[in-house]
Design a protein that fits this description.
This is Aldehyde dehydrogenase. The protein is of the alpha/beta class and about 500 residues long. The chain has 16 helices and 22 strands. The structure holds nicotinamide-adenine-dinucleotide.
Length: about 500
């Protein structure tokens, strides 16, 4: 019997990766573990599968992706239950996660041809006798590396974009949720049995590293910022392009004219859903002075009703409990006041909802990703101060603004890839909107038109239609012809606007 056990990480035993139910500590399931050679073999198989998949054309791929979408809908309860077993996520949260995933799969399948299909481009001055063609060609094989916190919607975004664009995908699910990852791959194979167009390779972080070095054309990574940097470094060895969807420390701003109860409800949902283990989760609130007291009271009332073990599931990754405990202790040590939960909130594997006020801006609870059901609320004098404090973070993933008059203007000024006005996390539910961050939250986009373009290379082709009357790009041109070209240039572009 061979066993690999890095403390705090899932166990690999007899070449099987074993995942654990975080609520009970019992085995949740097991999948075959890959090694570097198996990763390379999967990518080689995927190259052949990609050629076959491309041969199906836009319409053939669309039909199959839509059939997979319908399968996910049909078996939604089974998948939500599996997610609960493996990640601890409450079933209702799982059902909503799958709903968002279905939306992205549907959108990518239906829009790939329109967004990426070939198009003719208008002739320009120097090339009057030529026509331009723009095509978006797939990379071949895309590597997708996923996290455990949203083990369905986070990988489905890049997987559906990459597949719709004509790529095959080799998917490395998180070691904490490999069974859910394998379920996605197996159900896709029920719809597309002919070729391994979507495969999974399982293991710890080294298998993600092996995927980066395996000859894939592009990597889409979702996970922590620290790992994102390692993924970029591994991909840099062969100039493999990457999308990095990393961590966040999203802020919510409550302005003077906000609906305070709606803002409180959204702040509680945005910070505590999935036990706070949400990349775009609200971790900080900046509330302007006139509404601050009412807002704090409403948040405490609403968050106080949440029950651990019911709406608040267990913390999926045991070592995250130490980080959450550290942040809570740091906030208290620096003078923060817990108005709900606090010092004893961490009761493994659960963390009770915790709400802080008066936490200084240099506390880890304000500066670092906590990834637990905790929230800080800070009083600010106006929306300008709120924006300046919200933007004072290396991260820039999402954010939220509650208010009426200035809300959309404030949303534009937040340094982040997405903002919800009078809501939280809402932008992840729209298949036609791009998703991704700035700064230490990463770069590149999944979802929407930009998310489709991530998984294809633009290719420019010019085709001569006739002999040139005014040849420019040849040594055969005469000085008189060049003068005529310059005359045309002056006519077309010389006039000052
Ligand atoms: P993680 O970085 O620990 O792991 C993510 C994945 O990377 C896993 O599959 C892991 O096995 C793999 N990995 C680990 N080391 C690797 C290496 N050296 N090379 C290649 N791959 C490697 O992240 P996690 O704990 O699974 O997920 C939580 C983090 O993900 C949080 O920071 C959260 O904010 C972030 N996240 C971001 C988004 C987003 O869209 N921006 C979405 C969900 C989660």
């Amino acid at each position: 019997m061979t066993a690999t056990h890095v403390p705090g990480l899932p166990v690999i035993e007899d070449n099987q990766l074993i995942s654990t139910n975080p609520a009970t500590g019992e085995e949740a399931g097991r999948v075959p573990a890959a090694d570097e050679q198996a990763v390379r073999a999967a990518v080689e198989r995927a190259k052949e599968a990609a050629a076959w998949w491309q041969g199906l054309g836009w319409d053939g791929r669309r039909t199959r992706l839509l059939r997979w979408r319908s399968l996910l809908v049909e078996r939604i309860d089974e998948l939500a239950e599996l997610t609960r077993l493996e990640s601890g996520k409450p079933v209702n949260d799982g059902l909503i996660e799958i709903t968002a995933a279905v939306e992205h799969l549907d959108w990518a399948a239906r829009h790939a041809k329109k967004v990426l299909g070939p198009r003719r481009m208008r002739t320009r001055l120097l090339l009057a006798e030529h026509v331009g063609h723009l095509e978006y060609q797939p990379f071949g094989v895309v590597g997708v590396i996923g996290p455990w916190n949203y083990p369905i919607v986070t990988p489905i975004g890049p997987i559906s974009g990459a597949l719709a664009a004509g790529n095959a995908v080799v998917f490395k699910p998180s070691e904490y949720t490999p069974v859910v990852g394998q379920w996605l791959v197996d159900t896709f194979a029920e719809i597309v049995p002919e070729q391994p167009v979507l495969q999974a390779v399982h293991g710890l972080g080294d298998i993600g590293g092996a995927l980066c070095r395996s000859g894939v054309g592009k990597v889409s990574f979702t996970g922590s910022t620290a790992t994102g940097k390692k993924v970029m470094a591994a991909c840099a060895e062969n100039l493999v392009p990457v999308v990095i969807e990393a961590g966040g420390k999203d802020a919510l701003i409550v302005d003077f004219d906000a609906d305070v109860r709606a803002a409180a409800e959204a702040a509680v949902w945005g910070s505590m859903t999935n036990a706070g283990q949400t990349c775009i989760g609200i971790e900080r609130v900046y509330a302007v002075a006139p509404v601050y007291d009412a807002f704090v009271a409403a948040v405490v009332e609403k968050a106080g009703k949440l029950r651990t073990g019911e709406e608040i599931g267990p913390i999926t990754m045991p070592r995250q409990l130490d980080i959450i405990r550290d942040h809570i202790e740091d906030a208290l040590a620096k003078g923060g006041r817990a108005v709900l939960g606090g010092a004893d909130a961490v009761q493994a594997p659960y963390v009770a909802p915790t709400v802080f006020v008066d936490v200084p801006e240099d506390s880890s609870e304000i500066r670092e990703e906590t990834f637990g059901p905790t929230l800080t609320i800070t009083r600010v004098s106006d929306v300008d101060e709120a924006i300046s404090k919200a933007n004072d973070s290396p991260y820039g993933l999402g954010g939220s603004v509650f208010g009426k008059k200035n809300a959309v203007r404030a949303a534009r000024r937040l340094r982040s890839g997405m903002v919800a006005v009078n809501g939280t996390l809402t932008f992840v539910g729209m298949g036609n909107l791009p998703f991704g961050g700035v700064g230490e939250s990463g770069f590149g986009r999944i979802h929407g038109e930009d998310g489709l373009r991530e998984f294809a290379r633009p290719k420019a082709i010019t085709v001569r239609r006739a002999k040139s009357l005014l040849p420019a790009m040849t040594f055969e041109r005469t000085p008189a012809q060049v003068r005529q070209i310059v005359k045309a240039l002056r006519l077309l572009y010389g006039r000052k606007p």
